[in-house]
Amino acid sequence: MTIKFTPDQILEKIYDRAESCQETTVILDRVIGERVDYVCRCTSNRAGVRLLMSCLLGKLDNPSVDPRNPYTEIPTGDCFSGRTYDERYITHFINKHRLPCNPTTAFLTPTLRNINRPLTTNIELVGRPRELYTTTLQLLENVALGQIDTELLFVEVVRILLNIRDEKLGRMASLLEALKRGEGALPLSSEAIVTLIEQHLACRNSSRLPVLVVSAAYQIAGDRLGERVLPLNSHNAADLQTGSIGDVEVCLVGDDNIVTAYEMKMKRVTIDDIDTAVAKIARASGKINNYIFITTDRIEPEITEYAAKFYEETGGTEIAILDCIGFLRHFLHLFHRLRTHYINAYQFLVLAEPDSAVNQTLKEAFLALRQTAESGE
Length: 377
What we know:
The protein contains 15 helices and 5 strands. It has helices at 7-20, 30-41, 47-61, 82-97, 130-144, 150-181, 190-201, 209-225, 239-242, 271-283, 301-308, 310-313, 324-334, 339-352, 360-375; strands at 227-229, 248-252, 258-265, 290-295, 318-323.
């Protein structure tokens, strides 16, 4: 009698095999081995590895399906719901073992969400990098044609992800240890912290960082202000989806009504941005005292004047535009004795963000920049 394993049991079996052979590849075919290594290590887009894992799990759970048909809209008897496998099983598996993958399903990405035909190698998926999708489809075809065992390929995927995870953890531990060795030295000055975060903001893919700059300020000074910051929404969640007013929302202690909302911009604030903010203020359930734009770009005087005129029209809500570094500099000098607490809070927020919001390179960059600043090099 054949034992039928649940998808969760299949995944744990895969994990155990991958962990037992973590140092050595289980795929002898060099071409297929290079393909799976590329998909697993493609840091610019993690949708490929989640797509691959979901399709492989579907095939292992039901060997009669074609791994290239992960959409129930495909009018064949060998299709399946890749999104169901992804959301119901792969997400838990990834979180449980801290695998370096996106926290959300691949099937809701723009490239994969509106498809109703087989993912064969002659279909051109619109996404970047193009090679990622081409290679992923080639691997699914390798499985469909019996050129590689499904379970063996899945073991190799998890094996590589485990190595990537451990490599990342090792680098982070080394950087944190270097910072720890510097404890006890003269604390960074407020201006040194401003320079440090300004350097961090100048790194690539840093659009989430201004949110953390402001959030860290309220985390360490909120009690003194009688205000608290609400939990941050996901980096890629739209305001209409979450019902939020801003990227950072502040309430009075003991009250859930938002009194101050911050919206972050990595570009110039425009008249359209102001008009959108006015619409948000109008639909807010409570009274918004301040709606503040934090920008890393130039502030146009005419836009500032346009924003100021809405104070009376909104019944007393001030709309202001502040420079991100200017906000940070003023805060650190105002709360000078909290400056070390501030940089620690900012570091905590940076490291706690999912890689989809603050990628591993950006996290390591901050730790390296801080270590350099504190060592005086």
